[in-house]
Design a protein that fits this description.
Length: 123
């Protein structure tokens, strides 16, 4: 269930309504559970359109080894309607564990996905 997710890579395109709706949905599913880290890779690379989802997931994969949830950089004044307590703003966050990463990608023309990746354990 939702409690298994350690890092949520949000879609977060900085569009007012899109970010508000995504924040509401995240809160509805995950609540205020602080063991969840929410970040966004677009703050580093911009919006890569069709490649955004893959690049954002790639940006989070190192967390399986180093247990660092990368930050959403340049997030100085979040909209209060989107200010979830789990957002990793400006400084990476050390995680106790990273077993599952959820990557949200909501694209134009209905190209949407939520991909969950599990850490490979060698078993």
């Amino acid at each position: 269930g939702p409690e298994a997710i350690d890092i949520l890579s949000s879609h977060a395109t900085a569009t007012e309504q899109g970010d508000i709706e995504e924040s509401l949905a995240i809160h509805k599913v995950f609540g205020d559970r602080m063991s969840l880290a929410i970040n966004n890779t677009k703050s580093f690379i911009g919006h890569a359109m069709g490649a955004a989802g893959a690049l954002e997931l790639l940006g989070n994969l190192p967390a399986f080894d180093d247990h660092l949830a990368h930050a959403t950089i340049n997030l100085d004044r979040p909209d209060p309607r989107c200010a979830l307590p789990q957002i990793v703003a400006n400084t990476p966050r050390k995680m106790d564990r990273v077993e599952y990463i959820l990557n949200n990608s909501f694209g134009m023309l209905g190209i949407n996905s939520a991909t969950i990746v599990k850490r490979y354990s060698g078993e």
